[in-house]
Amino acid sequence: MIKLDAMENPYSLPNDFKDKWLALLRDVELNRYPDPAARALTEQLRSAMAVPAAAKIILGNGSDELIQIILMAVVAKDRVVLSVEPSFVMYKMIAAYTDMQYVGVPLQDDFSLNETALLDAIATQQPAVIFIAYPNNPTGNLFDETVIEKVIAAAPGLVVIDEAYHAFAEQSYMAKVMDYDNVVVMRTVSKLGLAGLRLGLLAGSEDWLNEFDKVRLPYNINVLTQATAELALAHKDIFDQQTAEIRKERIELLDALSRIDGLQVYPSSANFILFRTPKGKADQIFASLKEQGVLIKNLSPAGGSLTDCLRVTVGKPEENAAFLTALKKVL
């Protein structure tokens, strides 16, 4: 299968990097517990992701664990988690796991923020935590910063800016995270090409992160992840080149999809593209692509504003070409 369903970096690592990695692993002391604070890795991430010097950092086993840590730290009877719909499904799922109420505010038809509805929901629900994916998943768009600023100002609790796709958006709240007393920024290395490591980062003021650190399990970042990520960040130029190539391919794929009759293609600042098929055709198109050896994501079963929608990850040029050929056959 040509795998274009999970927003992964399609490029493997160069052989000389793999040789360095294998040599490094020979010296990793598997009989010892890892540094519980992952200090060396944390400082490398601070540099690589331009985290302000005044910000504290904690690491998680992917963004999922960081979401769980945040909600475990703030959970109390009748407290609310708020986000937009559609967005990253783990906000709602982990809210359920932690027995918190979840409120999803529908996006507008073009998947932009509904300012009035969002601010009304904040005023009514008084959420303990608001999650804003920037860019959003699964829609791929960057939300209006003016509206986000209003959300931050209106929020009675914490606002989490989830920047999982920052490498493709080239816009971020990281540089100004310390300008607010109720904002933290979340990142991951997964989309850079290290999805298998399960490594996420949360940055913000000590007032918040010291509390989150109290519910973080010790040794949550294992020795193999720490060693591998440190080596990868020392060769960040490899990943920068790959993400630049993905951004270039995204432009070309967006243009090609936009020229296909019958599709409504949405703008993307991530490494994937959302598009709407002719009414009632998404399941058939998805199945036909799969039969032709191309796997993308069928979002239509989620219903609501995602009815008839499919999402394709930006792949290598030859993978994108194969997807387009298969798509044109079924259409």
Estimate nothing, just give the exact number of structural domains. Answer: 2
Which runs of at least 5 residues are low in confidence (pLDDT < 50)? none
Approximate helicity band: 40-55%
SS summary, helix count: 12
Separation of the first and last Cα atoms? 20 Å
For the record, what CATH class of the largest domain applies? Alpha Beta
Task: Kindly report the name of the CATH homologous superfamily of the largest domain.
Answer: Type I PLP-dependent aspartate aminotransferase-like (Major domain)
Mean pLDDT: 97
Write the element-wise H/E pattern from the N-terminal end onward.
EHHEHEHEHEHEHEEHHHEEHEEEH
Describe the fold and architecture.
- It is built from twelve helices and 13 strands.
- It has 331 residues and is of the alpha/beta class.
- The protein folds into two domains: 2-11 and 237-330, Aspartate Aminotransferase, domain 1, CATH 3.90.1150.10; 33-235, Type I PLP-dependent aspartate aminotransferase-like (Major domain) (Aspartate Aminotransferase, domain 2, 3-Layer(aba) Sandwich), CATH 3.40.640.
- The protein has a seven-stranded mixed beta sheet, sandwiched between helices. Strands 9-10-13-12 form a four-stranded antiparallel beta sheet. A two-stranded parallel ribbon has the order 1-11.
- Strand 9 and strand 10 (272-276) form a beta hairpin.
- It starts with a strand and ends with a helix.
